[in-house]
Amino acid sequence: xxxxxxxxxxxxxxxxxxxxxxxxxxxxxxxxxxxxxxxxxxxxxxxxxxxxxxxxxxxxxxxxxxxxxxxxxxxxxxxxxxxxxxxxxxxxxxxxxxxxxxxxxxxxxxxxxxxxxxxxxxxxxxxxxxxxxxxxxxxxxxxxxxxxxxxxxxxxxxxxxxxxxxxxxxxxxxxxxxxxxxxxxxxxxxxxxxxxxxxxxxxxxxxxxxxxxxxxxxxxxxxxxxxxxxxxxxxxxxxxxxxxxxxxxxxxxxxxxxxxxxxxxxxxxxxxxxxxxxxxxxxxxxxxxxxxxxxxxxxxxxxxxxxxxxxxxxxxxxxxxxxxxxxxxxxxxxxxxxxxxxxxxxxxxxx
Length: 351
Fold this sequence. Notes:
3-stranded parallel sheet, alpha/beta, 14 helices, globular, TIM Barrel
């Protein structure tokens, strides 16, 4: 059976099929991905009004692709106080945010209590705000640092007010590539195990894939299939987010940056392969807003949100340091021929 016959008959694709999709004409590939998207969401494109907070950039790990960590190229170390974080949340709540997204470095000086108490303080003061916090990489770091199991850390997160988990730290699951770009950080099986435990507690999370560096197309498909396999078991992933590698200020020295066609094909293939993860997010922070808008025609149905401020990807060259205004976001989606729909963090439609 040919790849087109499988696509026409909605037959689930395997690793070889996924790699073969990259050889398909971009517009033909987009046609298949767009049909799946429109069957599920019509012309709706989701966004949320959120605030990213990166509380500290001091990190014990040395990831070759990272420009955010203060342990190497960035001499400007910082750690926000609880008061600074709460003031940031206060200002953002006044701007209408529904979600605070808290992700940062692996700082051995701050402590587990420091994290848990800020979650509690935010929840006590703003009980309606959704807290999305701590990647699987951060959970692994805290688990090792405090000699606690993943489940113990997760139970504490839930008790102190964390509502969902972001998808960061997945990078690429191929173990050889992972060893080169982020050796010492959470392993692929550990990342998947942490999300599995989180899902088994009845909670939702996202999943990411960092691509466009030293990985191969086969590595990307392998990554996607590992996520699909876990989703078959738990059903806990809300969204898949292909993150485009940012090339400035890091040690990977990538020369062959992916073309726009390669990026759009990756979005389309993600939509086609991940038949069990409902939302494909074109995170405009890493892809650029122009390419994210175009990705709507290649399977993406979510563009993330306003974010207000972003430090991690902007340190590596992304044009995202100050976020985007909601009215501008809405107009961009409308002008690209789609219907903007504000959602909450769990993809319930708000307006």
